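Example for tutorial group B:
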């Protein structure tokens, strides 16, 4: 190897190491976030998880000519307010190529297909974010949920009936699949695969290719760390109160690169919960006037990671929450068990983020909140 090529690789590697230190510095210096031992320790773990995601997403599985639909988030790797009810998958696409998505649908309540510009790479053709929004149930599936969709560049003639074709415009560089479950533990997930139409030779890794991938993974790490802290700061106007709007409005507004990648068939209502000593936040999810498929509450840390749902109840939805006699749902966010239904366990925390996602809902009402002493609930 020439000295210039070795120098190129070494420079990319240094950028990767420096990015991890910069991300940790963001955790160390972020203003206005909780500073308990647990919160800070979770911040350090969070950066290791982001590094893991960056490596898989942008180094190992970023080739649109050999697409890999991979699970991006789980109990051990979380990104920007992940929903515990949702199984997330991503793959890279080339907007000049055609692809076939095949497999089986599974038993999720909803399987959304969000096509968009490449995440973290800024505007493409003057726009960023979601380019096409669809969900599997709008297509013709087999008797046992078999999936066979053709994804083609807009303007090209598909070779099968239009009902099972997705036309994607120029600038589309990724597919995000969101499987949203009423019961993620027991409901069968989808088994989906994607392949490019047409043959291409196996990839051969070159110096410039891997150096560029490493450098972008480094940028992603710093970008997400800063974005999460900014999202936390943005909640200052919604303390114990819900703001937010439809994902389609975020896509249309082009307000920032994260929100523009919203699922356009979802509505997002969010805010920060802040509890005093021995206080609880009673939040009411109001039964909307129109039909809807799903709502789900997620609670998170200051790093926008869902609270650990493996061992206790940190999220609920319209199937798992107990409904009140008036048709609404009353949920209680508190650091200890108040002895009432629909308790969301904060694990002792007195501050965090909360979001209610609605699926296929037409302008649902914002949840309402009331801060009360925990002992008054029993």
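The residue assignment follows.
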């Amino acid at each position: 190897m020439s000295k210039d090529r070795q120098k190129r690789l070494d420079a990319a590697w240094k950028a990767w190491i420096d990015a991890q230190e910069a991300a940790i510095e963001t955790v160390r210096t972020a203003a206005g976030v909780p500073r308990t031992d647990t919160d800070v320790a979770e911040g350090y773990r969070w950066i290791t998880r982001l590094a893991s995601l960056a490596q898989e997403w942008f180094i190992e599985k970023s080739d649109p000519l050999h697409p890999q639909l991979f699970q991006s988030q789980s109990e051990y790797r979380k990104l920007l307010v992940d929903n515990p009810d949702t199984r997330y998958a991503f793959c890279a696409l080339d907007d000049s190529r055609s692809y076939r998505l095949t497999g089986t649908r599974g038993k999720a309540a909803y399987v959304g297909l969000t096509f968009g510009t490449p995440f973290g790479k800024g505007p493409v053709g003057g726009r960023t974010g979601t380019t096409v929004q669809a969900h599997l149930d709008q297509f013709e599936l087999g008797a046992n949920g078999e999936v066979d969709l053709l994804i083609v560049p807009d303007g090209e003639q598909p070779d099968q009936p239009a009902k099972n074709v997705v036309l994607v415009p120029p600038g589309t560089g990724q597919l995000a699949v969101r499987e949203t479950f009423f019961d993620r533990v027991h409901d069968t997930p989808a088994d989906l695969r994607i392949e490019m139409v047409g043959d291409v030779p196996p990839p051969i890794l070159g110096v410039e290719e891997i150096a560029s991938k490493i450098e972008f993974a480094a940028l992603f790490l710093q970008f997400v760390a800063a974005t999460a802290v900014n999202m936390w700061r943005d909640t200052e106007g919604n303390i114990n109160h819900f703001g937010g709007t439809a994902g389609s409005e975020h896509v249309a507004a082009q307000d920032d690169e994260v929100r523009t990648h919203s699922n356009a068939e979802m509505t997002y209502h969010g805010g920060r919960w802040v509890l005093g000593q021995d206080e609880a936040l009673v939040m009411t999810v109001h039964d909307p006037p129109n039909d809807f498929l799903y709502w789900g509450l997620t609670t998170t840390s200051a790093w926008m990671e869902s609270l650990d749902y493996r061992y206790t109840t940190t999220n609920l939805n319209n199937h798992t929450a107990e409904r009140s006699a008036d048709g609404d749902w009353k949920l209680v966010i508190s650091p200890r068990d108040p002895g009432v239904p629909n308790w969301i366990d904060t694990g002792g925390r007195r501050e965090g983020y909360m979001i209610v996602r609605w699926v296929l809902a037409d302008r649902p009402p914002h949840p309402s909140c009331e801060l009360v002493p925990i002992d008054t609930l029993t």
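The longest strand covers residues 266-274. Compare this with the pattern of hydrophobic and polar residues in the output above.
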